[in-house]
Amino acid sequence: MKLAVDAMGGDNAPSEIVKGALEAAKNYSCEIILVGDENKITEILNAEEDWKNLSITVKHAAEIIEMGEHPADAVRNKKDSSIVVATKMVKDGEADAVLSAGSTGAAVAAAQLILKRIHGIGRPAIATPIPTPNGVTLMLDSGANVDSKPEHLLQVGIMGSLYAEHVLGKKNPRVGLLNIGEEETKGNEQVKEAYQLFKSSSTINFIGNAEGRDIPKGNFDVVACDGFVGNVVLKFGEGLATTIFELIKEAIDNGGISAKVGALLLTPTLRSLAKRLDVSENGGAPLLGVDGCCIISHGSSDAKTICSAIKIAAEYVNSDVLGHIKNALEKEYSGS
Amino acid sequence: MKLAVDAMGGDNAPSEIVKGALEAAKNYSCEIILVGDENKITEILNAEEDWKNLSITVKHAAEIIEMGEHPADAVRNKKDSSIVVATKMVKDGEADAVLSAGSTGAAVAAAQLILKRIHGIGRPAIATPIPTPNGVTLMLDSGANVDSKPEHLLQVGIMGSLYAEHVLGKKNPRVGLLNIGEEETKGNEQVKEAYQLFKSSSTINFIGNAEGRDIPKGNFDVVACDGFVGNVVLKFGEGLATTIFELIKEAIDNGGISAKVGALLLTPTLRSLAKRLDVSENGGAPLLGVDGCCIISHGSSDAKTICSAIKIAAEYVNSDVLGHIKNALEKEYSGS
Questions:
Q1: Is the pTM for the entire model greater than 0.90?
Q2: Average per-residue pLDDT in chain A?
C-alpha cells in the first residue's frame, strides 16, 4: 500500500505530520510518500537517524493551500501545492491513497476535481466516527456538502453502511437518518423525502430516524445527514466535551481538599476517558464518494493522530470499500 | 402575575407538575391556575395540608393531547384539552402566561393558532439556554420550525437578543448566526443570505458566524439557527453530556481501589457539575414570536424543573419582553 501524505497541511505541519509518518512507517507495512517542501521535510526526517531504512520517500511540491483560500479556486490555481500533487499521485496510480490535515475544503475540492466522483454519486461525504460507550457511530456527511438533496442523503447512507461493514467490521450495520423525531412524518421536506428513499432501499438496513441523542449513545452504526447539520453537530460535540472536562478541572480547583485528593486518585481514569472521547483521537475521516481513497485529518492533528490516520487509510484501501460502493450503487440504481 | 399551568403535560404529569406548582406558589409571588383533570389534581394538592392558603386554583379540562398526535389537528379537535384551555386563558386575559411540559408540537400549535404570531414574525422560535462556563448561550430556534427562510433567521436573532437583554440581563448581547465556518462566504444558501440580513440590521449586535463549538464555550450570548439544526444540536448535547457522565461512572466502577476512593471524594463536586450542565435544569424555554407568553418545559420535567420554569415565566412577563419585541420589529421594518 502506497500512501501520499500532504506534509504541509494542518496546524502542526510539517513537523508533526512527518513524525506521524515515521511512526506509521515503523509500525505498519505501507510505503509513505511525504509531499511538500523537500528541504523542510528532509530536515525533520534527518532527526531520525535511520529513516532511510524505512519505506519513506519525499516528493517535492512548492506551494501550500492556506486555510482561508477559496478551495476550488486554490486547487485550480496552485497546481504545485502539496494537496494537489498528492491527490494527483492517486489519480496517476503512483499512490493508493491520499491523506491531508490541511484545509478540508481544499482536500474535498482536489478529490472532486482530480479523482472525480464515483458514477451515481451526486455529492461526496466525510464520514466521521463519533465515540460511543460501545465503539463508534459513523456520522456522515460531516461537512463536505451543505445543500444535500434527498437522493444525496440516500447515497450517503449506502456509502456509510458499506464503510461500517467493510472497514469498521460491523455486520449488517444499523443505518439511521438524522431527524428531529422518530416518526416518519417528522422533519423538514429534505428528510421527509429522504425517509421514503431509505425505507425502499434494499441495499441498507434502515432502522428509522435517529435523533441527536442517538449519536453519542451508539443506538445506530451509521447516521446519515446533510453536511451542514453534521458539521455543526461535530464541532458542538468537540466544544461540549472540552468544556465539560474544563469545568470538571475548574470544579476540582475550586473544591476543598477532599475534592483535590479525589481528583488526584482519579486522574488516570479521567485522562484515558478524555482521550477516548476526543474525536481527534480517531485519526482520520474518509471522504466517501470520490473515485479514490482520500482521508481527511483534523487540522490540529499531532504525530499520533497522523499515525492512526495512516492506519485508517491502509484499512480503507485493503478493504476495497471503493469497489463495494461501486457495486452497491449499480445494484441500487438498476433496481435489482 | 397569573400563570396557567398545563397540569397534564409531561412524562411525570400530573404529580410532578402539581408539586412544582406548589413549590413555586410558596416561593414566588404569582397566582397559579392548574389546568387539567380536576379530581386528579385536587387529590395531589390535598397531600399538601394548607394548599388552600396558597395562590393556587384548579381549572378543569377533560382532554389530554398525547405525544404521538398530530399537533395542529389535535389542537383543533381537542378543544377541552389542558394545553388548549390553558393557552386560551392567556388569549382571554385570564392568565399572563401558559406553561407546558407536554407535547412541544402541541404547545407550539396551540400558541400559533390561539395567541397568533406577532405582526412581522414569520415563524415563532423556541429559545433554549445552553449552559456554558460563564452562564448560558441562548440558542434559538431549537425546534419550533424546520424550514426557516433567511428573514425568519433574522427575526429569530432579534427576538433572542431582546430576550437575552431583558430577561437574562445581558447588555448589548453578542448575536451569532450558526454556521460551519467563520467566513461570511461559508454555509448553505439559507445562512449565506441570512448573514447579509444580520450584517445590515441595526437592531442587533451581530458579531458574525458562530460554529458549533462556540455554543458550549459561551463565545456568543445568542445563537440563531433553523429549528432542525437547533433541535438536533440540543438533543445531541443532552445525549453527549449523559454519555460522558455514564462513562465516567463506568470507568470508576472498572477502576482500581484508588479510582473508587477518588470518586467518593469527588462525588459532591461532580454531582453539582452534572446538574449545572443538565439542560433540563434550566426549567423552561420561551416560545418567542407569538402574541403572549408561552413557556415550554422538557417532557421529563420534575417538580424542581417546573418550579424553575414558573420563575422563568414570571421573569418573562415582568420584563415586558413581548412589548420590546413588537417595538423592535416595527423599527426594523420601518428602516428607522
A1: yes
A2: 92
Contacts of B235 (CB under 8 A, 6+ apart): A180, A211, A212, A213
At B250, is the pLDDT very low, low, confident or very high (cuts 50, 70, 90)? confident
Kindly determine whether residue A213 and residue B228, on different chains, have CB atoms separated by under 8 Å.
no
| B19 vs B44: CA distance, rounded Å | 8
Specify the amino acid at residue B239.
G
Interface contact flag, A234 B212, Cβ < 8 Å: yes
pLDDT of residue B241: 83
Please report residues of B whose CB lies closer than 8 A to that of A185: 70
Long-range contacts from A163-166, C-beta under 8 angstroms, 24+ separation: A163/A127, A163/A138, A163/A222, A163/A286, A163/A288, A163/A321, A164/A138, A164/A221, A164/A222, A165/A324, A166/A319, A166/A320, A166/A321, A166/A324
Give me the residue from B70, B243, B258 closest to A217, CB to CB.
B243
Residue B300 φ/ψ, nearest 5 degrees: -90, 15
- Contact by Cβ (8 Å): A21, A47: no
ipTM for the assembly: 0.91
Ramachandran quadrant class, B292 (left: phi over 0; alpha: psi -120 to 50; beta: rest): left
| Cα dihedral: B219, B224, B228, B232 (round 10) | 20
User: Would you call A248 and B273 a contact, using CB atoms and an 8 Å cutoff?
Assistant: yes
Cβ B270–A251 below 8 Å, yes or no? yes
Q: Where are the beta strands (DSSP E) in A61-203?
A: 97-100, 125-132, 135-140, 174-178
pLDDT, tens only, B91-133: 999 999 999 999 999 999 999 999 999 999 999 999 999 988 8
Of A243, A255, A273, the CB nearest to B133: A243
